[in-house]
Amino acid sequence: MKIFDSIQLGSTGPVCENCAHFQNDPAFIEETYRGLTVMSSGFASVRDRDGFCNHHQLYLSARDSCPGFKAALRESPE
Question: Per the confidence metrics, is the pTM higher than 0.85?
Answer without folding.
Answer: no
